[in-house]
Design a protein that fits this description.
This protein has 500 residues and is α+β, with helices and mostly antiparallel strands. Among the domains are: 8-75 and 162-238 and 319-365, FAD/NAD(P)-binding domain, CATH 3.50.50; 245-315, 2-Layer Sandwich (Alpha-Beta Plaits), CATH 3.30.70. It has helices at 16-29, 56-63, 67-73, 111-121, 132-139, 164-177, 224-229, 293-301, 347-360, 369-395, 402-409, 414-426, 439-448, 465-484, 489-496, and strands at 8-12, 34-39, 77-79, 81-85, 93-97, 159-161, 181-184, 187-192, 199-204, 209-211, 214-217, 234-236, 245-251, 261-266, 269-275, 280-286, 313-316, 320-322, 326-327, 330-332, 338-339. The strands form five sheets. A seven-stranded mixed beta sheet has the order 5-4-14-15-16-13-17. A six-stranded mixed beta sheet has the order 7-2-1-11-20-19. The structure holds flavin-adenine dinucleotide (FAD). Flavin-adenine dinucleotide binds next to α1, β2, β13 and α9. GO terms for molecular function: monooxygenase activity; nucleotide binding. InterPro entries: FAD/NAD-bd_sf, Flavin-dep_Halogenase_NPB, Flavin_halogenase, Trp_halogen. This is Tryptophan halogenase.
């Protein structure tokens, strides 16, 4: 009979996933377990992930990391949302901005219902004009929320752009101070226990054997433990998210970085632009059925804000997820657990969310099936609903290239079909359970992609048209005044967190 207590945790991989996991576990349970992290300099890290969503602030706060220091150390900038250019058709533009649409909801009726009524009457501006983060983003403004009530500035919902390699280094320093032991070396073998197939140890090319009770697979796309050793299986989503290649290239930074990510549709995919303090990150995500690597690189290089600082770096991936994220005594976190293209900056969030679930369900006394099943159920739900959200961006388009036609005609998951049908027919949107993206996110992308219902909530008609116009336009004026009072994004950075 094994003693089922967890005394030794082995983390395989030292990319963003490995060091985020190491730092959190060291902070939360480092006194009662020994944590060892193995990484290989020869293999290296993906090191792309540069754009995030606001939840990362909670992660940093849990670790007690000062936000200005974090932005300085990672050469970061602030992010109020994502701008989608040319997605619906060439020339179109909308934003998925973080935070709320409008001001406070009136009773139980959301602001956008009033907007829908005025939209039908042709008496309203685009939805983004009533979304504080978008108004501020368009002006190139940024500041943190003031906490003072009754103003759009009370709570500014922001995330960051940052250099993921520097973030991993920053967290490594943090984790090592808390006792995490790092080993540089290449794992060449994984030893499974005879009786139950649990992982017993990994073996390095030096011959060293590292044993543990819990193994966290942060080895990236290769899934060294979860797939190569445990053969867990992968669910392929290429039929819904067909892009499978990326070219990434940094270019010179600009003096006034935008406080938002830009995603521009291209003939067989899309291009990201992520401004950092010391450079701008760019990448072209595309589908190899419709475009070759040379053409993809040429399109990327022809559409940069500044001089390219390197040659385009090719990356290959298959969108999808592991059939189980936690299998026996191994939990896959990061790219080893699955990958969706970085359209809504979800990957680093999934790392954070996986760590949070692992902490909530930490197997301090062995590996109960119920615990493992619950972890897998919750993670699957989050992956699938986020997948639906990404598919929505591709689906509703009026572009004429073969890639986009295929996206328009594809069969979609029932869960997404239900959400679109409900919104189209009744103007209602609901966030289910722990879905990552809220009604506000879905609303902006639905409307941005041209899905605008011809109805609105019946309670809207409790107010007369003039009152609605006054309320909606009054909100816009308040948002504009508040945004105009903010400093510019560049000014805010140089005052608080400019890297030397
Ligand atoms: P990796 O960075 O690949 O790290 C794997 C680690 O495992 C390395 O340390 C490696 O040395 C180690 N390893 C592997 N095999 C062995 C072995 N045999 N022995 C020892 N060590 C080993 N995410 C976002 O949130 N926002 C974005 O904007 C974003 N953009 C992206 C764009 C692209 C094109 C891609 C591909 C990803 C993007 N991501 C983004 C995802 C993000 O890059 C990853 O989620 C993040 O970097 C985590 O990677 P990882 O740590 O899981 O894997």
């Amino acid at each position: 009979m094994h003693d089922s207590r967890i005394r030794k945790i082995v983390i395989v991989g030292g990319g963003t996933a490995g060091w985020m996991t190491a730092a959190t576990l060291a902070k939360l349970i480092g006194r009662s377990v020994a944590i060892r992290l193995v990484e290989s300099d020869e293999i290296g890290i993906v090191g792309v992930g540069e754009a995030t969503i606001p939840q990362i602030r909670l992660f940093n706060a849990t670790l007690g990391i000062d936000e200005d220091e974090f932005v300085r150390e990672t050469r970061g900038t602030f992010k109020l949302g994502i701008e989608f250019v040319d997605w619906t058709r060439p020339g179109s533009r909308y934003m998925h901005a973080f935070g709320v649409v409008g001001g406070r909801d009136l009773g139980l009726v959301q602001f956008y219902q009033y907007w829908l009524k005025l939209h039908q009457l042709g008496k309203v501006a685009e939805l983004g004009s009533y979304t504080f983060n978008q108004v501020a983003a368009r002006l190139g403004r940024f500041m943190r929320g003031t906490g003072q009530p009754n103003s759009p500035l009370t709570n500014v919902y922001h995330a960051f752009h940052f250099d993921a390699g520097l973030y991993a280094r920053f967290l490594r320093g943090y984790a090592e101070k808390l006792g995490v032991v790092r080993t540089e070396g290449k794992i060449v073998d994984t030893i499974l226990r005879g009786e139950d197939g649990f992982i017993e140890a990994v073996v390095l090319d030096s011959g060293e054997r590292i044993e543990g009770e819990l193994f966290i697979d942060c080895s990236g796309f290769r899934g060294l433990l979860i797939e190569q050793a445990l053969h867990t299986g992968h669910e392929d989503w290429s039929h819904w998210l067909p892009c499978n290649r990326a070219m990434a290239v940094p270019c010179a930074s600009v003096p006034d970085p935008t406080p938002y990510t830009r995603a521009t549709a291209r003939p067989a995919g899309w291009q990201w632009r992520i401004p950092l303090q010391h450079r701008t990150g760019n990448g072209h995500v595309y589908c190899s059925d419709f475009m070759g690597d040379d053409e993809a690189a040429a399109i990327l290089l022809a559409n940069l804000d500044g001089e390219a600082l390197a040659d385009p770096r090719p990356l290959r991936f298959t969108t999808g997820m592991r059939k189980r994220f936690w299998n026996r005594n191994c939990v896959a976190i990061g790219l080893s657990s699955g990958f969706m293209e970085p359209l809504e900056s979800t990957s680093i969030h999934f790392i954070q969310s996986s760590i949070a679930k692992l902490v909530a369900l930490f197997p301090d006394r062995g590996f109960a099936e119920q615990t493992i099943d619950e972890y897998n159920r919750q993670t699957r739900f989050e992956f699938e609903r986020s997948r639906d959200f990404l598919i929505l961006h591709y689906l509703a388009n009026a572009r004429d290239e073969p890639f986009w036609q295929r996206c328009r005609e594809m069969a979609i998951p029932d869960t997404l079909r239900h959400k679109i049908d409900l919104f189209r027919s009744s103007a209602r949107l609901f966030r289910e359970h722990e879905e990552l993206f809220t009604e506000v996110g879905w609303l902006q992308v639905m409307v941005g992609q041209g899905i605008v219902p011809e109805r609105y909530h019946p309670m809207v008609d409790m107010l007369g048209e003039a009152e609605i116009v006054q309320m909606v336009e009054g909100t816009r004026a308040v948002l504009e005044r508040a945004a105009a009072a903010m400093p510019s994004h560049a000014e805010f950075i140089s005052r608080h967190c400019r890297a030397s």
